[in-house]
Amino acid sequence: MRITCQGNSVTELKIMGNKLPKVSEFNGFALPNQTLSPSFSMDSFVTTLTRLSNLRVLCLVSLGIWGPLPDKIHRLYSLQLLDISSNFMFGTIPSQMSRMVSLRTLALDGNFFNDTMPDWLDSLTNLTVLSLKNNKLKGQFPSSLSRSTSLTDIILSHNALSGKLPDMSALSGLHLLDLRENHFDSELPPLPRGLTNILLSNNSLSGIIPKQLGKLEQLQHLDLSNNILSGTPPSELFSLPNISYLNLASNMLSGSLPERIDCGDVLGFVDISGNRLVGSLPSCLDSTSGKRTVKFGWNCLSIDTKNQHSKAYCDKVVTESKHFTRKAIVVLVGVIGGIVVIVVLLAVGLFIFCRRHHASATPPDLHTMPKVVQDNPSSAVSSELLANARIISQAAKLGTQGTMVYRLFSMEELEEATNHFDQSMLLGEGSIKKIYKGRLENGNYVAIRSLALHKKFLIRNLKLRLDLLSKLRHPHLVCLLGHCIDGGVQDDSTVNRVFLVYEFVPSGNFHAHLSDTSPEKVLKWSDRLAVLIGVAKAVHFLHTGVIPPSTCNRLKTKNILLDEHGIAKLSDYGMSIITEEVEKSRAKGDDSKSWHMTKSEDDIYNFGFILLESLVDPISRGKGEAFLLNEMASFGSQDGGQKFVDPFVLTTSSQESLSIVISITSKCISPESSRPSFEDVLWNLQYAAQVQATADADQKSDAASLS
């Protein structure tokens, strides 16, 4: 919680909670028990807030607030930032908010707003960031947005929006357009040239990819996957100077790519799989070079034929698609006609039945009917909200979704994937393990860890341990896909090697990114916080989300990997389950120190050292753990901070955000008895990230005002 005052007025109110959606029964309704109490009134709450007439920043995140957003919210006319994300708000976004002309950032993410998108957004002439993702908004993309020239970020992903996308070329300041996971079915519209991120995956967009996209020289990230786009993709897309991520997978793209394409220098990921492309692959997309990750399976290309369709398949699909529209119209007319006839017959039958039943029915006894007390109808919990609360609760239990099913691998598969464990496929090695890069028969890249177990495990015991390890699934854990036991599978003989097959995470480890001082690759403070929060969530899951808990997870910056989106994933977790460390502790007669009983404080200390490495400059980081620990005491002083904190951190962080992380770092590295829980660590990091996001938004708006 943070309250900021100027003079006698409150100007900022920020409260962040940790309300996670769970379901319990209340008055016959399945009301999420992580909401505020049933007596809570959003209307009364906003009435109280409107007394703060000089309030400029209002953040109420993950507090369990529920109910419709009252019309009177517009009385907070001085608001510049409104963030009510991750709550249980539902209904309509009130039109009276069009009077809040001072608003620069509006974030209502992760709620249950279920009406149409507001069409008055161009009235908010100072609005730069609009984020309404993860709601139930429906209807068309509002035409008013195409006139909101102050916008820099439009984030409407994971809703139920549909229809056509308008011409957005007038939005000269727009940098981020995120419309993923909706139902838009138009062609790609004209877009502004200043865009850096275009995310339009999982819609029904059709037509060709316009050549205009190949002129967006600021574009860094383009995702058009899982649509029905056709034609040949413009070769200019691959050579854009700043493009680093290009995903055109799962469309209807056809034709052949030019043999000579000059790929951009920073292009690191390309996915053109699941289309109808023919011919050969341009040399700059040669995935064996290691310069970039390229996915091209299930086209009709002349390379890697075992993962391609035949050319006849693509020719047939293209030919059939030309006749599809006419046939579809005929079929659709027939289906609609049949449905109309059935509906009319059902309506007539229902009318006759109701007339007869009404004549013989006894009027209900009002005194015996269930009574629902509803003092304020506008605050009632909608059935759609309650249904979605159940879905969210189930989704939280599922953890990582869309991951491959865990399975057994054969030695033949692994040998083929690694060219018989050729030295060129070796990614790294340690005292008891080697890690290889491999490519499976389906084209997916994997990381294969070869463990040399020096102790004698019973096969049955080892399989139980592997089964337990396979259940550790989380979005920020490197996913374990399967294993192979080399030798002694049919009996209880000793085991020489165990191979663990993981998803391949392509963008290197956190330690390397922290050590990289090149201006285009160095991680700014907000990016470092995002990585740290992801890892903290993973470790919190390992400590509290599984029984028995997994501790001693070898936390260090080299074991934090980044995927192509910059998402952090922890590797080397849970290794104590199957390595000799278990036997060593038991050999000492200390059964309480078995892998699931080791102290979680060890992970907290190691994570504290990761925090420390994220703070200091590369030179200090290279002097080792003892030096950093000795200098930790000086972090609290201004001189110490200037001396040892990474200069790039100092220039990209707010003082408050940095102070929060320094404080929690000090606590993690302190004597064992006073170390915080991982829940406390995670909360502090999330709060530091929100403070930093607010500071960045303020800086951006100040810069815009000056310009």
Automatic annotation (TrEMBL):
Keywords of this entry: Glycoprotein, Leucine-rich repeat, Membrane, Repeat, Signal, Transmembrane, Transmembrane helix
Statement: the UniProt record of this protein carries the keyword Cell inner membrane: no
Cellular component GO terms held in the UniProt record: membrane
Main location: membrane
Regions that span the bilayer: 329-353
Classification via InterPro entries: Kinase-like_dom_sf, Leu-rich_rpt, LRR_dom_sf, Plant_LRR-RLKs, Prot_kinase_dom, Ser-Thr/Tyr_kinase_cat_dom
Location relative to the cell: Membrane
PROSITE patterns assigned to the protein according to its UniProt record, in alphabetical order: PROTEIN_KINASE_DOM
The protein's name in its UniProt record: Protein kinase domain-containing protein
